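[Q] Does anyone have a clean structure-token version of this?
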Amino acid sequence: MGKFINPFTDWGFKHIFGQEITKELLLSFLNDLFAGEFQIADLTFKNPGQLGMSKDSRGVVFDIYCTTLEGKNIIVEMQNRAQPHFIDRALYYTSRVIVDQGKRGEWNYCLTPVYTICFMNFIDSGLTPGKFRTDIVLADRDTGCQQSDKLRIVYLMLPLFTKEEGDCRNDFERWIYVLKNMSTLERMPFLAQNAVFKRLAEISDLTMLSREELQKYDESIKVMRDTYATITYERQKGWAEGRAEGIAEGKQEGIASVARNMLQRGMPNEDVCKFTGLSREEVESLE
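[A] Here you go.
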């Protein structure tokens, strides 16, 4: 166990990125994520309940909904467990924020941009294979030119980020490395490169949590562990069932092979049925 909180827990992620007193951490991460495109000067947290989102015990964490000073709507979500149609789900909630901008009466359809950032602690086969970061925008299919900046979804498949500490070349990569490894770190890296990591170390240090905060964190850890235990059980159960089916199929094929040899040696069908346990129809199908 490392010195810092696990950012993949519900409480841990919100403790780092979802508090007014630590807003500079979220600002820093978002500006590093979109480096070279635009700069966010400030942001205001909004209630994720406005999106009809809620947390459940299967590891779904709807964390942050905010608006920037420049008028962009940003959703940040941490997803620990793969689920069907996750890509469509992110599109649905992004679209909800767009639709909610509609006004009664006269309205000229002027929209503000909506960006969704999805931290994915799993690999989704629906996204580009082997690609850690996938950016979805509205673009012309033939030219690839972006036609609107009003909708954008950034998928970050964390298992595909494999860089080590010394391989990180910019602050965005440093952020991802730290978040992915933070629960096992004994020291916070990159303190010399950016002061924001010093602040991250301070806010995520387990020894600095109050008793109440530590209790909430422990509860969040338990939920995450229960989630992983469920996933592991389901996988093992699936493997066991598949192995049992394979053994059964192998035995059936072996019996069929014996039956064919008997038939080739001229043994009557009735005797083949008696010795193999196959039905008359099954034996006749082997002839």
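[Q] Thanks! Anything notable?
[A] The CA atoms of residues 19 and 49 lie 16 Å apart.
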